[in-house]
TrEMBL record:
Molecular-function GO term, any one: structural constituent of ribosome
Function: This protein binds specifically to 23S rRNA; its binding is stimulated by other ribosomal proteins, e.g. L4, L17, and L20. It is important during the early stages of 50S assembly. It makes multiple contacts with different domains of the 23S rRNA in the assembled 50S subunit and ribosome.
Keyword field: Ribonucleoprotein, Ribosomal protein, RNA-binding, rRNA-binding
Native source species: Bifidobacterium subtile
Family, as annotated: Belongs to the universal ribosomal protein uL22 family.
A Pfam cross-reference name: Ribosomal_L22
GO BP: any one term: translation
NCBIfam families hit by this protein: rplV_bact
Quaternary context: Part of the 50S ribosomal subunit.
InterPro entries, alphabetized: Ribosomal_uL22 (IPR001063), Ribosomal_uL22_bac/chlpt-type (IPR005727), Ribosomal_uL22_bac/org-type (IPR047867), Ribosomal_uL22_CS (IPR018260), Ribosomal_uL22_sf (IPR036394)
Protein name as it appears in the record: Large ribosomal subunit protein uL22
GO cellular component terms given for this protein: cytosolic large ribosomal subunit
Amino acid sequence: MEAKAIARHVRVTPRKARRMVDLIRGKQATQAIITLKFAPQDAATPVRKVLESAVANARVKADKAGEAFHENDLYVTETYVDEGVTLKRFRARAQGRAARINKRTSHITVVVANKEGAR
């Protein structure tokens, strides 16, 4: 069984989020949640929330299919971070100048599957 969760427009730069995603790729889902819980980086929180959502989606799918659900059998098979919308902001400066500030966002995707479905 495979379950997927996506978080869009997360206010974390894609480069910082990819560091966290690379940390959990291929790990057991419960172990990955613990790893992200204690990671000091700020990007770990939204990635952990997406991973927890994917595990919850797997639980719902198993209940609908009438299958037994074991959280320890889930592995993170796919994770990736895409660049989202860039928010453009301006800050006034002296002599009528304006500094342009780009706020980057990310789209975080996590796919979990059973051990036999893992790559």
